Amino acid sequence: MSDKSRARFWLWVAPSSVPLTLLGSIPVLLLAYISLTSFELGYAFTDHRFVGFSNYTRLFSGREVEFWPALWLSIFVTFVSVIAKTALGLGVAVLLNKKLRFEYLATALIILPMAVNPAIAGLMWKLMLSYDFGIINAWLEELGFDKVVWLGQAWALMSVVIVLVWMHFPLSALLILAGLRNIAKDPQEAALMDGCNPRQVFWFIVAPQLLPVIIASSLFQAILAFQAFGPIFTLTGGGPGGATMILPLYIYEAAFGLGTVGLAAAAAIILIAITSALSAGMLVLGGKGQRS
Amino acid sequence: MSFTRRAFMLTSALITSALVSFPQAAIADSEEFSKWVDTVKAQEGGKTIRILGLSHPASESMKAMTPEFEKATGINVEWEIVGSGEILSKQFLAQTAGESSYDVYMVKGTALAEYDTKNVLVELSSRLEATNEYLPEYDFEDIHVAYRSGLGEVHGNTIAVPIAGETFFLSYRKDLFEKYGKTPPQTMDELLEAAKFFHEKEPGLYGISMRAETGRTLALTWEVFNPAFGGAIVDQANWDVKTDSPATIRSLKYLLELLAYAPPDIETYSWDAAVSAYAAGKTAMWLDATSLQSWLVDSDKSKVVGKIGYVAPPEGPEGRFGPVGGWSLGLPSTGTQADAGWAFIVWMTSKEKALEAFQKGGVPSRLSVLQDPAFADADPEFASALKDSLDAAGNLITSGRRWIPATSESTKLHKAAGYWAGQALLKKMTVEEAMKAAIPQLEEITAKIKSQE
Question: pTM for the whole thing?
Answer without folding.
Answer: 0.81
